[in-house]
Specification:
- By secondary structure, the protein is an all-alpha fold.
- The protein has helices at 2-25, 29-53.
- It is built from two helices and no strands.
- Helix 1 runs antiparallel to helix 2.
- The longest helix has 25 residues, at 29-53.
- The protein is elongated, with a radius of gyration of 13 Å.
- The two termini are 14 Å apart.
- The model has no long low-confidence stretch (mean pLDDT 96).
């Protein structure tokens, strides 16, 4: 179960990084900032889940 959560977090992180990249290219500061905040949360979740697997 936790391994599935880690995988889902990794997929979300990759997606959010791509959205941030596109937002920068489009000079869309609002979207970029929104997804940077979301990305930080997802990275925290990822760290929590990977820590539980250790």
């Amino acid at each position: 179960m936790i391994r599935n959560d880690v995988k889902a977090e990794e997929e979300a992180i990759a997606l959010y990084k791509e959205i941030i990249k596109l937002a920068k290219e489009e000079d869309d500061t609002t979207t970029r900032k929104l997804f940077e905040d979301i990305l930080r949360d997802e990275e925290d979740h990822h760290n929590t889940f990977t820590g539980l697997l250790e």
